[in-house]
Amino acid sequence: MSQRDDLPPNDRPPNDGPSRFERPPPRPPQRPASNQAHPGTVRRRPEDRPPRQEQPVGDRPQSDRPYPDRPRQDRPSGDRPYNDRPRGDRPPSRERPHLDRQTLTSRSQLPRREDRPRRDERQAPPPDVVSGLHAVEALLRWQPKRVQALYLWASDARVRARLEELAQTAKVRVEKEPPRGFEHELANPQGVAVRVTPFEYADIERIMPLEGPADGTLIVCLDSITDPRNLGAILRSAAFFRATAVIIPQDRSAEVTPLVERIAEGGAASVPVVQVVNLARTLGSLRDRGVEVVGTALDGATGDLRTYKWAKATALVLGAEGSGIRPLVRKNCDQLITLPGPEQMPSLNVSAFATLTMAMVRGSQPAPR
Question: Which of 179, 196, 213 is the last residue of a domain?
Answer without folding.
Answer: 196
